[in-house]
Amino acid sequence: MRDRIVIALLLGLALTTMAAFMGVNLRGNIAFALELRGIRLAALVTVAIAIALSTVTFQTITGNRILTPSIMGLDALYQFGQAALVFGLGGLGYVSLSPLLKFGAETAALMLLAMIILRPALKSQMDLTRMLLAGVIIGALFRSMTSLIGRLIDPQEFAVAQRAMVANFSSPMIDLLLIAVLVTVIAGGFLLSSRHLLDVAALGRDTAIGLGVAWNRAVMIHLLVVSLLVAVSTALVGPVTFLGLLVTALAERLTASRRHDTLFAVAILLGVIVLVGGQTLLQHGLGQASTLSVVVDFIGGLVFILLLFARRIR
């Protein structure tokens, strides 16, 4: 009963923020403004769904509630792919690439490298300290390589790829919206269909294997889906390190159940509220006094530190 009440309240709040996003300060050509805001709203909702689903799933297969795909360096890997394309093709060649072709190639590379880098760590069930250290090293490695490429090529060409390296919720990549929505729907449908398997996986590796879960196969498949969703969110708005951690931490504290259908629903609704509501407030209430990515990462970083201290106290 409590979870249903929480979901109903969050759904009402999410719909309210979406209505505010569409209607606040609406003037001029109403039809054009509504179309533009509708496209941006669809992008924000898609990002919220992708980040929420990927983070909850990643925390389940890693066996702890602090790690996220972004903390483990997957978004830094995606950024490196952008810079590498500019380095190899030049600024003009990069711009000339089809957005769908570029998204497909980068997503495939992200999924492949995620399997190479993260799967051995997940199979060996590294402890939290070494997992965090691995994530920091992976992220630092790819950010350093991206910085190196920025120094090797012409600054004007590197500026072409920089848009993808800073989260921008006010100007999402509209060209990729259709494919992003399609990928998110397919990946989300798969994760919802495997929610019972994830419920068992949340009990721990040994228990899940004892209950009949093919652990290595499950980890591989779900890690690929997580990588796909990370690519979707990063391609649309850029990297957001702590949004997933923020919404999943809040979802766990608002729900009495640990079932994944409930966690998925609450985390998605919280993601929509944070992104759509935050963007509405900053854009129309505070006159873009700050950017949403900075606020989200600041609050999410504080939540990350609090979670670390809470684990140490226990």
Note the topology.
Layout: H1 2-23, H2 30-62, H3 74-96, H4 99-123, H5 128-152, H6 155-162, H7 177-193, H8 195-201, H9 205-210, H10 215-237, H11 243-254, H12 260-285, H13 292-313
Helix pairs in contact: 1-2, 1-12, 2-7, 2-10, 2-11, 2-12, 3-4, 3-5, 3-6, 4-10, 7-10, 11-12, 11-13
Percent range of helical residues: over 70%
Q: Separation of termini?
A: 29 Å
Encode the helix/strand succession as letters.
HHHHHHHHHHHHH
Radius of gyration: 19 Å
What can be said about the biggest beta sheet? none
Average pLDDT, all residues:
79
- Tell me the number of strands: 0
The SS-based structural class is mainly alpha
Beta content = under 5%
Low-confidence stretches: none
Coarse morphology:
globular
**In DSSP terms, counting alpha (H) and pi (I) runs of 4 or more, how many helices?**
13
Brief write-up:
This protein is mainly alpha-helical and 314 residues long. It has 13 helices and no strands. The chain starts with a helix and ends with a helix.
Description:
41% of the residues are buried. Helix 2 (30-62) packs across helix 12 and helix 7 (177-193) packs antiparallel against helix 10 (215-237). The chain is globular, with a radius of gyration of 19 Å. The protein is built from 13 helices and no strands. The protein has 314 residues and is mainly alpha-helical. The mean pLDDT is 79.
